[in-house]
Amino acid sequence: MCMRRLLPAMFAVCAFGTAAAADRTLSYFPVGPIYEYRWKVLELALDHVRRDEGVAFGLRPFAEDVTQNRAVSLLQDGVIDVIALGTNDEREARMLPIKIDISRGIVGYRVFLISASDQARIARMDDEAFRKSLTFGLNSQWADVPVMRANGYTVLTSTDYESLFGMLAAHRFDALPRGIGEAAVELAARQEAYPQLTIERTRALFFPYPIYFWVNRQDAQLAARIERGLRAALADGSLRTLFEAHHAAMIEELGRSHRRVVRLDNPLLPPGSAEIDTRWWWR
């Protein structure tokens, strides 16, 4: 997803750790406010590696404006060291995953950005009308596209992430599905440009979609270190503490909401995918 225009100043330099003092500096993708948690997780895992094994890593954002598919190619070429994205068969063939779901399933819980004028109309729909009557806008490389199409939803795609908000405001489609941790952040960043957009209040979709760290298939040592760091953070509770602190407002809002949640099958999941455990934030 192309996020260069939204990068905060903190991502213009090494975001976590001091590159000059590191044994190795890792370039990572994707970058932007909605991905901040993923890199805090990596920082936490690598801090465990530093304390347990004496190996220090710095982190540097890869801030060029590239698509997810292009980023995968750059990782294969050694330009990017670590990617944090969801899984599918193609990615598992091209990269080496650390099969621990760092998102605890939260990315698969989707709410919808809509035009405020459509709030009442959509709220009156039953689930069948919601599926058959609406058109959903998505980036062509997002995981939602094949998932929603396989479950009978009509999808309109764009290759440009930013254009989706203008297309929604212009009623080119009815709803823009976003992760529950993404929607409010993205809406706030564009409130001045698109004051007519809001978050739909009555529904959510959920599909199993683990988020992994990925490295080059030749970099098994790095993959093993990241996995050891993640397992150490799970064992001592620091990963859960980070998750709950970062998502506190979202977890509180979720507890107050009364959305009908429609569960979807995910045909993208390769065999052996990480189990989805939502108990830290949902049920």
Task: Please give a structural write-up.
It comes from Castellaniella defragrans (strain DSM 12143 / CCUG 39792 / 65Phen). With 283 residues, this protein is α/β, with parallel strands linked by helices. The chain folds into two domains: 127 residues, Periplasmic binding protein-like II (D-Maltodextrin-Binding Protein, domain 2); 101 residues, Periplasmic binding protein-like II (D-Maltodextrin-Binding Protein, domain 2, 3-Layer(aba) Sandwich), CATH 3.40.190. 35% of the residues lie in helices and 20% in strands. The protein contains eleven helices and twelve strands. The strands form three sheets. Strands 2-1-3-11-4 form a five-stranded mixed beta sheet, sandwiched between helices. Strand 6, helix 6 and strand 7 form a beta-alpha-beta unit. Helix 1 crosses helix 9 and helix 1 runs antiparallel to helix 10.
Number of helices: 11
Provide the structure class: alpha/beta
For the record, what CATH class of the largest domain applies? Answer: Alpha Beta
- Give the strand order, joined by hyphens, for the main sheet: 2-1-3-11-4
Q: Got a strand count?
A: 12
Largest sheet: 5 strands, mixed
Question: What count of domains describes the coordinates?
Answer: 2
The CATH topology label of the largest domain is D-Maltodextrin-Binding Protein, domain 2
